[in-house]
Design goal:
Helix content is 36%, strand content 30%. The chain has 89 residues and is α+β, with helices and mostly antiparallel strands.
């Protein structure tokens, strides 16, 4: 059930600079970022068990990477809280 919930992460995100990015979960502990308009990879966001993230790429600036990471980690925290509340009931 947990995997199904995490598969519902945002598929796209629009950042403040106007870029649209696909967020694709990869096989490891991260997410591939893809620009569908320019058809190119934009790097990866890696997230550890503690929710700490790092941007692995050169196409986004620090602020753009923070926005994308916030969208990813924010949804993960919401899912963790949902799972905890379901277990408590």
């Amino acid at each position: 059930m947990k995997n199904k919930l995490f598969d519902d992460l945002p598929k796209t995100v629009k950042i403040s600079t106007g870029k649209w990015l696909y967020i694709l979960r990869d096989k490891g502990e991260g997410y591939l970022l893809y620009d569908p308009i320019n058809e190119k990879e934009m790097g990866r966001i890696l997230v550890d068990d503690a929710g700490q993230w790092i941007y692995d790429g050169e196409q986004l600036d620090v602020y753009e990477a923070e926005e994308v990471a916030g969208a990813i980690t924010g949804h993960e925290k919401e899912m963790e809280e949902l799972l905890k509340s379901l277990k408590e009931d």
